[in-house]
Amino acid sequence: MGKPHAPVISYPAQGHIIPRMEFSNRMVKHGFTITFVNTDYNHKHVLEAAKTHPQDPPGDGTGPVRLVSIPDGLVPGAPGADRNQLVAGVSMGWALDVAKRLGIARAAVWPAATGCLTMHLKIPELVQNGVLYGACSFSFLLGK
C-alpha cells in the first residue's frame, strides 16, 4: 500500500498552527507523509519563520511535512485528490464533515488541555442534569 499520507488542516489563527505542526512532525516519525494546509496568508508567514530556523522542521516545506496553501476556499480540481486520510482540529468540523462525505478516513485533534475538551463536550449534559442553569450560568462555582 505504501507510506500513509494525511493532509493536516489547522484553524487559521494564532495558537492553532504550531501545535498542528508539532503533531505533524510526530506523525512523520511514525511513518506518515504530511501535507500541511494553510491559508495563503499563514503559509507565507510559516515559510518566512522557517527561513530563520532552517535546521528545524518544516524547513523549506518540501520534506516529509509538505507545506501547501489555499485561498479562502478550495478550487475544484486542485491537487490532493489522492489523499486517503485527514487530520483536522476539532474546531474545523466542516473539514471533518467533508472528509466523511468523501469517504476519507479522518481524525480530530484538540491542542488544548483535555479538561477543556471534556468540559466542552459535557456542557449539554451538565445543563440537562441541572448542574448548570442555562447556557451561561456558572453560579455553582461560587457556591450559590
UniProtKB/TrEMBL annotation:
Gene3D superfamilies: Glycogen Phosphorylase B (3.40.50.2000)
Protein family membership: Belongs to the UDP-glycosyltransferase family.
Protein name, per record: Uncharacterized protein
Organism: Amborella trichopoda
